[in-house]
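User: Second chain of the day. Same drill as before.
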Amino acid sequence: MSVLALLLGSLGLSQAFYLPGVSPREYADGEPVDLKVNKLDSVKTQLPYDYYSLPFCQPDKITEVSENLGEVISGEKIESSAYNIRMRKTESCKVLCQKEYKAEEMKQFAEKIHEDYQVNWIVDNIPVAEEFIIVKVDENSVPLPDNTQEKETLLMKGYALGRLGTGPTDKGVAYINNHVHMTLLYHEDPASFEGYRIVGFHVQAFSVNHQSKGKFDGTGNSLKTCKAFSANSNSQTMQPVEGSNKIAMRDIIFTYDVEWEASPIKWASRWDLYLKMNNVDIHWFSIANSFIIAVCLSTVVALTLIKTLRGDLQRYNEVDPEEALEETGWKLVHGEVFRPPAYAGTFSMLLGTGCQLVAMSVSTLVFACLGFLSPSNRGGLMTALLLLFVFCGIINGYVTTRTFKMFGLTSWKTNTLRTALFFPGVTFSIFFIMNLFVWGEKSTGAVPFGTLVALLVLWLGISAPLVYLGSYFAFKREAIKAPVRVNNIPRMLPPADKIPWFMRPACCYFAGGAVVFGSCFAELHFILDSVWHHQFYYMFGMLAVIFLLLVITSAEVSVILVYFQLCSEDYHWWWRSIFYTGTSGLLTFAFSVHYFFTGLEVLKFVTGLLFFGYMFLLSLAFFLVTGTIGHFAAYYFVSKIYASVKID
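Assistant: Same format as last time:
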């Protein structure tokens, strides 16, 4: 349940409040219930296809449902179907259609079955889910007695298009699931509303080689292979779509059952079973892992600031002129520490883009925790990410130019143009190349040309002008002044052999990145499972906690490493403050490579291209977010300590 729902519940308003577009609908007894078909998808190819790209039974007229931007980018394609369902009307072995298939059409079914494609339907905005009953066993893996058995219902999104034979004579032969047993759950509460609300949509799919009692008359009554709710009999012959006997495979009869069950589940809780697909224990482990890392780092930082830094400030602020001549440590480089870094324009551009991504992430998490981006709002998360990124462009421009002007640079318009084109340009270029390959596979995952134009308009027509607007406001403000004066002549750095091996840049980059990555890797693994295995992700509250701990960890890692660097009299800290935490993005990509070979079973080159393309963009965004957080924490720390010490 969302935070918003909890707040409204405490005020007694939860029964009257529903988010836009997801309010409940009441059906009268016998009223038609629309079953809409969605895309076919597979975890082995990651390429969605239109439901009617396969020769299924079709209605007289296929009606497409309008989709938002997020649904189009995600490859959703929702259309009407030929299924006839009425509220609380039970159907047994209802014939959908009988079709004769050519060898080429049978081959299409067989290819998709071999690639483990799943069928996705929607009823009353609830996705279809295949139901599995898990019986708990004892410590010896023996099922408990019937009277003490504990059973748990597990739902898997969609249902299998077909199955492969496992016997000695049919191993690897594709069988199509041409009979579905639908179970629709409804809730009735005459005291609160009239009619019935649909609160569940489960399916069991079977492959049945239907045989008629005589001449098939187009109804289920003439089928001897389909009795009331008995299509799951293991003794029935399955319907193949490949093999040597092609004549027997031409006719396929599609049938379905409809069973209605009264349920105590209320409409507001109807997604609970779907969200059980997530293992909550993993999230608690992730939070505990991040919390322990943050506490350990906080302890180190606290000891450093309270003991070491306090002693430094007391010693440096003493007015003994003889001791002043023997200055060592971070005070010695006070005249260099605020010297502008190399490639200051690029540096400011990365910080501005990082702030834009941080603002987008925080805003999205706020809306998600309030319940506006629930799974029922299909495509809402993707749409929110795109629009929030676009509108946060003004933050990008402001931070970029404020940093740019702080370094004494003046060509802010050119740098703003680079900033406006950098991250969106990289993202759009990679996305466009991947889209060409997906388009070549004739997948609905290929974004249409009109949508690409809309994305360009969002980028060049809204985001880029907002970046310029933010830059304009920033340039009109006075430049940020450093707390200490910068020397005219740069100071020599200490010899490399005088720096301990554990304080050298490469070692610090790896150590800092590993700590930051370690604070969120468990949640990252779960997110990858949800995205690439087509499951729901709705643990936004826990994700917000993980993100907060990630911010704390990144800030503390950068502060402590920059302090140690300055203590070794190395004042080149600007870029390193980004890379100390930003290298977690490199580790994120390395982890994605490991996940690709261990967590996925990939069948096509395009699938690998999509995976590594999207994971590269995610890793780049992670680098910018953590690097930006680390830099600003380090900058605040460095400014404070040099403003607190007496400089002659």
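The longest helix spans residues 605-643.

User: Great, on to the next one.
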